[in-house]
Amino acid sequence: MSWVYLIVAGVLEVVWAFSMKQSHGFSRLAPSLITIIIMMSSFWLLAIAMRTIPLGTAYPIWTGIGAIGTFLVGVTLLAEPVNAVRIVAATLIVLGVVLMKVSST
């Protein structure tokens, strides 16, 4: 169950990062509130997951999910630039997350 919590926490990291962008520097109320609530939920689930998953595994996977997710949201929803170097960088992050999972006991 800890892995489910960790994955959901990572997905929520993507949601709060996107809502933070939509808040325009916390100048818009609704996206600002969503950011804070979802951020707290993400941290809470990460903390629960870390009861059984080592810090050195949980945190990199959480940030990796957030990094790849926000990259995909930026490219697909916000029309941010995509090029070969960014794709290679994203691929390396995915490989790092997979290796963390595979190497965890």
From TrEMBL:
<dbReference type="InterPro" id="IPR037185">
    <property type="entry name" value="EmrE-like"/>
</dbReference>
<keyword id="KW-0812">Transmembrane</keyword>
<dbReference type="Pfam" id="PF00893">
    <property type="entry name" value="Multi_Drug_Res"/>
</dbReference>
<protein>
    <recommendedName>
        <fullName>Guanidinium exporter</fullName>
    </recommendedName>
</protein>
<keyword id="KW-0472">Membrane</keyword>
<feature type="transmembrane region" description="Helical">
    <location>
        <begin position="27"/>
        <end position="47"/>
    </location>
</feature>
<feature type="transmembrane region" description="Helical">
    <location>
        <begin position="59"/>
        <end position="78"/>
    </location>
</feature>
<keyword id="KW-0813">Transport</keyword>
<keyword id="KW-1003">Cell membrane</keyword>
<comment type="similarity">
    <text>Belongs to the drug/metabolite transporter (DMT) superfamily. Small multidrug resistance (SMR) (TC 2.A.7.1) family. Gdx/SugE subfamily.</text>
</comment>
<feature type="transmembrane region" description="Helical">
    <location>
        <begin position="84"/>
        <end position="102"/>
    </location>
</feature>
<dbReference type="InterPro" id="IPR000390">
    <property type="entry name" value="Small_drug/metabolite_transptr"/>
</dbReference>
<dbReference type="InterPro" id="IPR045324">
    <property type="entry name" value="Small_multidrug_res"/>
</dbReference>
<keyword id="KW-1133">Transmembrane helix</keyword>
